[in-house]
Design a protein that fits this description.
Length: 153
């Protein structure tokens, strides 16, 4: 990744409203975001794109998150993968599949952004300079609006 490129994130979730919300949140948090509606689409996107980090749901049609993580690991063993799960504890099948972190739902979006920043700082500290401390929405013609912390369920 060059210093002129924003960090690239892939959001994988079968629920359209979740993909949309995370897409917008991470865009406002300084990321270049791509989305996939299931594990099979995520694997195909990983064949042609290089992502700095991936968020992954577990229960999806066509290909579940565990299977997708395994196939993505074969393509890019070093990419951090954050599982967004309704599980409160780390399921054994997730850790064995190669997830970097588990983030339980519901979650504070600011906490998820901080976790993503921390993981990126471990893999490529230069990337973190592109991520603002708070999510911002620029409505045009003035200063960006700071977004409040909110729960995502």
């Amino acid at each position: 990744m060059t210093m002129t490129t924003r960090p690239k994130l892939l959001v994988v979730d079968d629920e359209e409203n979740i993909r949309y919300a995370l897409n917008k949140w991470f865009e406002m948090s300084g990321f270049d975001v791509d989305t996939a509606e299931d594990g099979a689409v995520a694997v195909e996107k990983c064949k042609t794109n290089r992502y700095d980090i991936i968020t992954m749901d577990l229960v999806m049609p066509k290909m579940d998150g565990n299977t997708a993580i395994g196939e993505i690991r074969a393509l890019n063993p070093d990419v951090p993968i954050v599982v967004l799960s309704g599980f409160s504890d780390r399921p054994p099948q997730v850790s064995s599949a190669g997830a970097t972190r588990i983030f339980a739902k519901p979650m504070m979006l600011t906490e998820l952004r901080q976790e993503v920043r921390a993981l990126l700082d471990q893999t490529d500290p230069a990337i973190v300079s592109w991520i603002p401390d708070t999510a911002q929405l620029n409505l045009g013609g003035g200063d960006p609006v700071q977004l409040i912390d909110d729960y995502y369920d």
